[in-house]
Description:
The structure is a single chain. The protein folds into two domains: 23-173, no CATH class; 175-314. The model has no long low-confidence stretch (mean pLDDT 89). By secondary structure, the protein is mainly alpha-helical. It is built from nine helices and no strands.
Amino acid sequence: MSTASRLTGIVSRFTSKLPVSVDGTVLRLAVLSLIGQTILVVTGGAVRLTSSGLGCPTWPRCTEDSLVNTPEMGLHGFIEFGNRLLTFALAAVAALMLVYLWNLRKERRDLFLLALGLLASIPAQAIIGGITVLTQLNPWVVGLHFLVSMGLVVLATLLVNRAYGRTGRFRSIQLAPLPGVARPLMAAVALFSAVAVCLGVVVTGAGPHAGDADAPRNNLDWDLFSHIHAVPAYLITAGSLLALYLVLQGKINGPFRSAVFLLLSVTLLQAVIGFSQYYNGIPALLVGTHMLGAALLMIAATNAADLSRSSPVK
């Protein structure tokens, strides 16, 4: 038997053991991916807020002579290298997801492409992170790094919804009919959420938390852009309240109702954190909490928009 034939046989035996339907392992990997992407936002915030952005002063190595951080680098090196390691862990989760979906790559093309998108984006994220270090924490590159993380959070949210059959072509749960206005309303809220996150990046780039004492700032008016950043936040709140009115007035139950309550709760929490940090001198802990809130907002807005799109219309 030729080497090629033996290799084909090994691959066939391996793939025959992989699932032919969405099983518990696939579901757990989808949830783990979403949790991991959210944690990555938090650890990225910790890197910046502890001034550990140059804890590993070069890339792809941590130092000129070491792939990993050294004891001499102290806490800053540990925090920065830990954030880098998490990226590799997320790549492993995405790759494992693709392996488990191999027999479903045609039948569940939606899941396979979402998992592929997550895996393909992680190396890009690593490269942007490297450019961030090599440009000495240029605020625009740092901002792009954060926005890519937000995009990965959105992809992971869609992956969870599709895997659990909550939305999409393979929806396995019954969704209550929604008023015709609900779908464009939730799409608008999701869009405003993305705009708010983008403007938040601009505000952060003008603020004091640069990731390193010598890192440059974008030289924009922090106070002015803080007020501009608040405009889409007001629109998100208004949209969420209108969605709540539609849910209560129409006596709509089920996943969409829960999604609206979650969206409104996260929106109000973000507003409280945002105002608190503005009027208290932008303390690092509140900024980090606000970054976590931004990830939760994107999850909630994506979930609500995804559910509204998959729901029948009255």
